[in-house]
């Protein structure tokens, strides 16, 4: 894969190849609010026939709280990354911030990667990658 490489994954920290950390790759980690994650997984389970479904939100939420759902695995995923959020090669972004502070977040991400985009580029990226723009493309 030619440089620079941009890879996306849902893997836990401890499941990634050690070479990523040995080579000091820059990593952006996206965390979601646990409530939003639970609601999203509930809809996923409800709408995808190949995964187990739940008869109600109450049934799903009960399993979620007891750790007997795939969401519990997601929580473990967050825990594995939490240990490394202060690492200088790791940037943490909250999903909720993507919806509210687009241009500021674009600047922060660019700075993290050592890039100095012009104001017009920042605005274009923020506009192109809004939730509505992504929905319209889908």
UniProtKB/TrEMBL annotation:
<dbReference type="GO" id="GO:0008146">
    <property type="term" value="F:sulfotransferase activity"/>
</dbReference>
<feature type="domain" description="Sulfotransferase">
    <location>
        <begin position="2"/>
        <end position="136"/>
    </location>
</feature>
<dbReference type="InterPro" id="IPR000863">
    <property type="entry name" value="Sulfotransferase_dom"/>
</dbReference>
<dbReference type="Pfam" id="PF00685">
    <property type="entry name" value="Sulfotransfer_1"/>
</dbReference>
<keyword id="KW-0808">Transferase</keyword>
<protein>
    <recommendedName>
        <fullName>Sulfotransferase</fullName>
        <ecNumber>2.8.2.-</ecNumber>
    </recommendedName>
</protein>
<dbReference type="InterPro" id="IPR027417">
    <property type="entry name" value="P-loop_NTPase"/>
</dbReference>
<comment type="similarity">
    <text>Belongs to the sulfotransferase 1 family.</text>
</comment>
């Amino acid at each position: 894969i030619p440089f620079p490489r941009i890879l996306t994954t849902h893997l836990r920290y401890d499941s990634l190849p050690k070479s990523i950390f040995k080579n000091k790759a820059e990593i952006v980690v996206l965390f979601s609010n646990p409530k939003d994650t639970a609601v999203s997984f509930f809809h996923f389970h409800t709408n995808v026939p190949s995964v187990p479904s739940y008869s109600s939100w109450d049934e799903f939420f009960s399993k979620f709280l007891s750790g007997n759902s795939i969401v519990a695995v997601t929580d473990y995923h967050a825990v594995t990354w939490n240990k490394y959020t202060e690492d200088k090669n790791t940037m943490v972004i909250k999903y909720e911030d993507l919806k509210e502070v687009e241009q500021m977040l674009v600047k922060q991400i660019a700075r993290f990667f050592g890039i100095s985009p012009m104001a017009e580029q920042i605005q274009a990226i923020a506009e192109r990658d809004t939730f509505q723009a992504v929905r319209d493309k889908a």
